[in-house]
Amino acid sequence: MKLIEIQRFRSPWLWAILILVNLPVQALGLRQLFGGMTIGDQPVPDGVMIFIMLIPLTILLLFLCTYLKISYDEERLEVRYFPFQTKQFSYADIDEMKIITYSPFLDYGGWGIRWNFDSWAYIVTGNQGISLKMKNGKKYLIGIQNAAMYQEMIGDFNRRD
Description:
The protein has helices spanning 12-35, 46-65, 104-108, 151-158, and strands at 2-8, 67-72, 76-82, 85-90, 94-101, 112-115, 120-123, 128-134, 139-144. It has 161 residues and is an alpha+beta fold.
């Protein structure tokens, strides 16, 4: 497999939101658990507080470890959206492959593994993607950062027939 790219969530606004949500939850939870100060007149039990603290922390850690890896060889294109899904697209099953410009929010409602009632999309960042139309009619979009890096793969695909 020839590795093309690995994408991670790097948007400053995303990390600002994740951190700003985490900080007060963790601070208040630690204050109750170890500081001896309760939150409100009827504080939640410590076990519930730990659970409440784990929710935003788990989401933060999930964003830290999630990545989109795109690679290909002579037979297929592989998309790994870790830790959720790996999808392989055999060139024999692809009818059309091209690079497009799209809006993650307007066309797919955001980032991640998305469905817009027409196609599946694997999006982490950016507004360029590889559009795949399969011979069985299914459609996919794979978000990419640098279209020039994919010209060789698309050229090889178009020369196959």
